[in-house]
Structure to design on (366 residues):
């Protein structure tokens, strides 16, 4: 930790220079405990997605709360998590190309690594790299369950690809994966349930076909924060990859209000050129806007109406007692894309900065 970050420990959260990310550790811990309690009586297990927090300390706490391992979006994230002591990692993505498959093979010598595949050519290059590095690499066949992103299209293609995997001694077929991301953000609960259940029916139909073909399917991996309590209860789904539940954001709190918003962005008013307009020192380079504008925390006297690169434009809705130099907290619209812009979490307990945690996987998109 750099001296300028360490200097904030023991000080009130408003002492932190802005823009900055504040993380309420008590809310974080309650979120981790609440999700662990949900999965405790179920056969399905939790493999949380580190693409949200990108922080080894949070991953360790998730493991301590009973998670069976960690999910990553990219190989470079997985490398960071492995260096931090995480022993069981799923890269829920295709790892393609000579440079990346060789890195995957080297990483598989350091941790239990699993990657997703949807093409025979990728299976062959993974096997070749694993052979060259004397590694054992796990594989999940990814199925397109309605999101129309990666994944094979149905049972016949999945079985053929799985058979290709089992022919490679350097690879271990560990099962299937399918992400119902198209269902996760449906605000109507009944419609969200219907979409998730339809998606999982497609995934489990592929599972049945693989079992009939004599192929091992110990893992059926799926799920997100918006569907954890739907997909996690479906018989046959063995693990859930939800990520945002640990810190939450403005969009997710409408879907899963049982989790608390632990993450806020601290910003400073830098100008009040008119009675009706505020300018903040937070912009698109410091808060994600892909899911909408950040929202003021605990106050209704202004709203953020626009973000430039380094400025936030806010409209005053009441006689807000705000002047240049004052600080306010905002709830990001999207936690994942906000965290990816920062190097540090300023960890707060009772309004006081308790610690500063590095966001080690920030920028790890390869």
């Amino acid at each position: 930790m750099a001296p300028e970050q360490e200097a904030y420990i023991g000080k009130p959260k408003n002492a932190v220079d802005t823009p900055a990310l504040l993380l309420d550790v008590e809310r974080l811990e309650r979120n981790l405990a609440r999700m662990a309690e949900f999965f405790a009586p179920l056969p399905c297990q939790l493999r949380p997605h580190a693409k949200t927090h990108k922080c080894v300390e949070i991953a360790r706490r998730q493991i301590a709360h009973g998670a069976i391992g960690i999910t990553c979006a990219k190989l470079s994230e997985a490398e960071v998590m492995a260096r931090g002591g995480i022993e069981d990692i799923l890269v829920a993505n295709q790892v393609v190309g000579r440079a990346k498959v060789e890195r995957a093979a080297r990483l598989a010598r350091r941790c239990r690594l699993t990657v997703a595949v949807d093409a025979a050519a990728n299976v062959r290059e993974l096997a070749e790299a694993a052979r060259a590095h004397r590694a054992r690499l796990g594989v999940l066949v990814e199925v397109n369950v309605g999101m129309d992103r990666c994944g094979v299209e149905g049972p016949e293609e999945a079985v053929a690809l799985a058979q290709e995997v089992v022919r490679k001694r350097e690879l271990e077929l560990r099962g299937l994966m399918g992400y119902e991301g198209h269902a996760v953000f449906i605000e109507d609960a009944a419609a969200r349930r219907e979409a998730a259940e339809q998606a999982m029916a497609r995934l489990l139909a592929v599972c049945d076909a693989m079992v009939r073909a004599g192929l091992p399917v110990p893992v059926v991996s799926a799920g997100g924060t918006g569907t954890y309590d739907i997909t996690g209860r479906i018989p046959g789904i063995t693990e859930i990859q939800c990520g945002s539940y640990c810190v939450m954001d403005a969009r997710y709190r409408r879907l899963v209000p049982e989790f608390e918003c632990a993450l806020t962005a601290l910003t400073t008013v830098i100008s009040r050129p008119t009675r009706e307009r505020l300018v903040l020192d937070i912009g698109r380079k410091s808060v994600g806007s892909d899911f909408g504008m950040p929202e003021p925390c605990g106050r209704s006297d202004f709203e953020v109406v626009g973000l430039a690169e380094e400025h936030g434009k806010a409209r005053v809705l009441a006689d807000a007692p705000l002047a240049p130099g004052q600080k306010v907290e905002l709830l990001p619209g999207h936690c994942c894309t906000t965290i990816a812009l920062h190097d540090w979490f300023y960890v707060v307990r009772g309004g006081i900065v308790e610690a500063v945690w590095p966001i080690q996987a920030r920028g790890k998109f390869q």
Summary: Residues 120 and 161 are 6 Å apart (CA to CA). The chain has eleven helices and 17 strands.
